[in-house]
Automatic annotation (TrEMBL):
Keywords: GTP-binding, Hydrolase, Nucleotide-binding. It holds the Pfam family ATP_bind_1. It comes from the Bacteria. InterPro entries: Gliding_Motility_GTPase, Gpn, P-loop_NTPase. Belongs to the GPN-loop GTPase family. SUPFAM superfamilies: P-loop containing nucleoside triphosphate hydrolases. GO terms for molecular function: GTP binding; hydrolase activity. This is ATP/GTP-binding protein. CDD domains: Ras_like_GTPase.
């Protein structure tokens, strides 16, 4: 389980910094989410969609998206005193998969963003975290114009393991994004405890 302790006050106030990945398909709202919740000016690397890129990046049904993240988003949020999260928005395109293995080293867990209009776009991310037993929550970014599905329907459509949380959210909204992250931290905490008990029992 990846975290670092930074002790700035001689052992009085030990701060935990946890690493969280934000994954999901192209245009699902990863950059938006990291930007909405981050207390520091989010670092992002975007490039204008090149003409060549446009044939690769299917922008149908996306809201006037003209840039794409080629490296990743980075942000930080303090959940409560002594607990902050470092957020890494993973590259949303297949040609950047090779970056994920490095990014996922030491991560507590992941948020998989989903858009119910293109639910299949998050299958690769779901598979990726399931196969590596990295705890994740699915956050349905409720775009205007998208039919509202319940958490249960999304869970079934994605064939998630029982217990994997599905949260409806608005990636543009700070409180909504924070709620997703709190759910993830709680869920990942339960998963890690259960595995620990399994390994001693
Ligand atoms: N209406 C609406 N638009 C959103 C929402 N989240 C993101 N967007 C827009 O969708 C586009 C893609 O979002 P972005 O964060 O860049 O997606 P990324 O590729 O996953 O990083 C941007 O133009 C956002 O402004 C949302 O919850 N509602
Ligand atoms: Mg992005």
């Amino acid at each position: 389980m990846g975290f670092e302790r930074s002790d700035t006050t001689g052992g009085q106030n030990t701060a935990l910094a946890l690493k969280i990945l934000v994954a999901g398909g192209f245009g699902v709202g990863k950059t938006t989410l990291v930007g909405a919740v981050s207390e520091i000016r989010p670092l992002r690397t975007e490039e204008l969609l090149s003409e060549a890129g446009q044939t690769v990046d299917d922008t149908d049904g996306l809201d006037h998206k003209t840039t794409t993240t080629v490296a990743m988003d980075f942000g930080r949020i303090t959940i409560r005193a002594g607990l902050s999260l470092y957020l890494f928005g993973t590259p949303g395109q297949d040609r950047f998969w090779f970056l994920w293995d490095e990014l996922s080293q030491g991560a507590l867990g992941a948020v998989v963003l989903a858009d119910t209009r293109r639910l299949e776009d998050c299958f690769p991310a779901v598979d990726y975290f399931e196969h590596r037993s990295i705890p994740f929550v699915v956050a349905v970014n409720c775009f205007t114009g998208a039919r509202a599905y319940g958490a249960h329907e999304v869970s079934r459509a994605l064939d998630l393991d029982r217990g994997t949380p599905v949260v409806l959210c608005d990636a543009r909204d700070r409180d909504s994004g924070k709620e997703v992250l709190v759910r993830l931290v709680e869920y990942a905490g339960r998963m890690h405890t259960a595995r620990l008990l399994d390994s001693v029992g």
